[in-house]
Design goal:
Elements lengths: L6 H10 L14 E2 L4 E3 L11 E4 L5 H9 L13 H4 L4 H6 L3 H32 L21
Antiparallel strand pairs: 1-2, 2-3
Helix pairs in contact: 1-5
The structure holds iron/sulfur cluster (2 copies).
The site of one iron/sulfur cluster has 11 residues, from helix 4.
C-alpha cells in the first residue's frame, strides 16, 4: 500500500472516522512554542483562538477546557463531507486567508476528491481483505505528529 496523501488519510477517515481537524490540532495534538506557550496549532503562533495556556502556569483541566473552544467552526460542522474531510485544517478554518470564495473553491476540490475515494472505498477494502492486509496500513501518519492530511 503506497502512502499517497491525501488518498490514504481520506480512505482511513471514510472507513473509521477521525478527529476534526484530521491533523488533530487542538483535539489530540498540541504545540509547545519555545516561549512555553501551549497552542492548538504550531502555525497559529500569534492567534488568540489557538492559545491554550502556558507551561508551568496552566493546569491540564484548564487547557482541556480551552481546547473545547478552539475547534473547527462554521459551515464545516453541517457539511455532508465532514466525515471524510474533517474541516481540512484548523488554521485555514479559523483564519480564512483565501476569503470565502477561495474557501469554497478548495471545498469543491476536496468534495470531488472525497467522492472519488468514496466510490472505490469498498473495492479497496475488499482487495485489502482478500490480500490479508491489515487495515493498519491505512494509518497515516503512523503516529500523531499533527501533519496535514486533507490539504
Ligand atoms: S468540504 Fe469544506 S465545508 Fe465541508 S468539511 Fe471540508 S472544509 Fe468544511
Ligand atoms: S494542518 Fe497544520 S496548520 Fe493546519 S491545523 Fe493542523 S497543524 Fe495547524
Amino acid at each position: 500500500m503506497l502512502g499517497i496523501v491525501p488518498f490514504l488519510g481520506i480512505l482511513k477517515r471514510l472507513r473509521e472516522g477521525g478527529s476534526n481537524p484530521p491533523c488533530g490540532a487542538g483535539v489530540n495534538a498540541i504545540a509547545i512554542l519555545p516561549n512555553g506557550e501551549i497552542r492548538a496549532c504550531p502555525i497559529a503562533y500569534d492567534a488568540e483562538w489557538a492559545l491554550l495556556g502556558k507551561l508551568g502556569r496552566t493546569d491540564y483541566s484548564e487547557m482541556r477546557h480551552r481546547m473545547l473552544g478552539c475547534g473547527i467552526a462554521g459551515e464545516c460542522l453541517g457539511c455532508t463531507h465532514l466525515r471524510g474531510c474533517g474541516g481540512r485544517c484548523l488554521y485555514m478554518n479559523r483564519e480564512r486567508y483565501w476569503g470565502e470564495a477561495g474557501f469554497k473553491k478548495i471545498c469543491e476540490v476536496t468534495k470531488h476528491t472525497i467522492d472519488a475515494i468514496s466510490n472505490v472505498k469498498d473495492e479497496a477494502c475488499d482487495i485489502m481483505k482478500n490480500l490479508g492486509m491489515s487495515y493498519q496500513v491505512l494509518d497515516y501518519p503512523k503516529f500523531n505528529n499533527s501533519t496535514e492530511i486533507v490539504p
